[in-house]
Amino acid sequence: MGNRPMNELNIEATQSTPSVSADWDSGVMHIAGDSFPENSFEFFAGVIDWIERYLASSGRPLHLDLRLMYMNTSSVKAMMDIFDLLEDAHRDGRAVEVIWHHDPANERVADLAGEFREDCTFPFGIEKDGV
Amino acid sequence: MASEHTIPRTREEADLHERVRALLDDPAQRANPMREALAELLDRSEEQRSRLEKLVRISDGYHNVSRTQNIDLIREYDRQIMRLEKLARISDRYQSQLIALNDELKTLTLRDPLTGVGNRRFMADRLREESERANRRGVTYSLAILDIDHFKTVNDRFGHDVGDAVLCRVVDTVRSCLRDYDVFARWGGEEFIIALPDTVLEVAAAVCERVRREIEVLNVSCDTVTVAVTASFGLTEHAPGENPSETINRADVALRRAKDAGRNRIVRTEIS
């Protein structure tokens, strides 16, 4: 309980980075917005670290809730790494789930989410917002 | 186990081994002075043989390990290649989305949303290009400013919907009279610019006259009213070395004269 603040992750969105909020107790992480940081590795290191620690420290489910619009190449790479982590956890029998939300007016985002979903065997939903 | 023979004995070797063994076991040879030396030699030979077998076994083991590692590496390499391909595929799609969005934005910033023709910014860009081209290659272009006569009255009397309909119909009419490479845009309000590349004033005047007549006979129907309009034209030709605003200013002066002279006409300014 003492290191609770380390388990909180709240990053405000900027022009080039998405907002990230993660709740340790419920096992839910939200990532929303555009992602084209100058240093994607640095930005996503904290996100990946949180997921790794969460998956290692308990057996509870992880729910990843995404509302990502534009991503640069290194951000795409980081998301693929995250999905690999989830895939490994899923193969170890862990309950993990991704829901990728998108604007009904932007079907292209859904297509891209579909590309990400390829070769993922864990539950991965692509949902239109407000429908 | 060491007893496993990784190197099988040949028949000759086995026969020789048997013969030596038989001689050593033969009681008649017990007193033979060579017997002890032969026994020792046989032991040495067996020892060497088992050392060699051990060496081959270990060596084979290493070989197997490296072969397995190789297969793992190839598998990992293939996996990374697949990841990279996926990354490139997704990234390419994001990129083409941006390009499409960019085109869309460009259209939005360069088009007049009402009539669909180019806007002032579009025309300013094209005139700059056209002037540079004319100055560089020693060619010319003519430029006309077209202004719909009494347009404000149309708006005031019949409302903006009718005014908008007039603008759209005039645009269609002008376009139908122009060649593909002529440049036409809404300059602002009820004012339009027509740029005619590689066209001398005389030819441009004929084109404008055709446009003027087409507009004159136009009847725009909208909301139960039918409106007829006319247009005035200020026409000039690009002078060698001048920039677009100088050309535009000269056309504008000509347009004022057309208005002052009673509208529905073309006034041209020769290059002084």
Sum up the structure in keywords.
heterodimer; A: 131 residues; alpha/beta; 6-stranded mixed sheet; 6 strands; 40% helix; B: 272 residues; alpha+beta; 5-stranded mixed sheet; 7 helices
Structure at a glance:
Chain A is an alpha/beta fold. Chain A is built from 4 helices and 6 strands, in the order αβββαβαβαβ.
H-E string of chain A: HEEEHEHEHE
Helix fraction of chain B, binned, reads: 55-70%
Shape descriptor of chain A reads globular
User: Which strands sit side by side, in order, in the main sheet of chain B?
Assistant: 2-3-1-6-7
- Biggest interface pair, residues each? A-B, 14 and 10 residues
Q: What is the SS-derived class of chain B? A: alpha+beta
Cα separation of the termini of chain A? 40 Å
How would you describe the oligomerization state of the chains in this entry? Answer: heterodimer
Q: What's the mean pLDDT score of chain B?
A: 93
Characterize the main sheet of chain B.
Answer: 5 strands, mixed
Number of helices of chain B: 7
The portion of residues assigned to helices of chain A is 25-40%
Uncertain parts of chain A: none
Into which percentage range does the β-strand content of chain B fall? 5-15%
Shape designation of chain B: rod-shaped
Roughly how many Å is the radius of gyration of chain B? 49 Å
Instruction: State the end-to-end CA separation of chain B.
Output: 111 Å
The pLDDT mean of chain A sits at 91
| Beta-strand residue percentage of chain A | 25-35%
